[in-house]
Design brief:
Elements: E1 13-14, E2 17-18, H1 23-31, H2 35-53, H3 58-70, H4 79-84
Antiparallel strand pairs: 1-2
Protein name: IcmT/TraK family protein
InterPro entries: IcmT-like (IPR047756)
Organism: Pseudomonas juntendi
């Protein structure tokens, strides 16, 4: 029997695109009704749809950005090493 918690962390999707990608379109309803704003919102949604299709969700991109900013090498010691061995 499958666990009921298996799908607890899956993000909701509408038409295969994460629902967070539709936020620019919702912002268009409140910001303005210019044509370029609608086109930009639709292009952002399409971009998020393509990224979600290849597996790069917003969380994955954010974590990759943080890893890039952090760098390839961590120069600090873990908390248990600092507490046990004083430098």
């Amino acid at each position: 029997m499958a666990s009921s918690w298996r799908g607890a962390s899956i993000s909701p999707k509408a038409f295969g695109i994460p629902c967070g990608a539709y936020l620019p379109l919702m912002a268009c309803l409140y910001v303005g009704h210019k044509l370029w704003v609608w086109i930009a919102a639709v292009m952002i949604i399409v971009c998020f749809g393509v990224m979600a299709h290849i597996g790069w969700t917003l969380n994955v991109c954010w974590n990759k950005f943080l890893g890039f900013m952090r760098g390839g090498r961590i120069v600090s010691r873990p908390w248990w090493y600092r507490n046990r061995f004083r430098d």
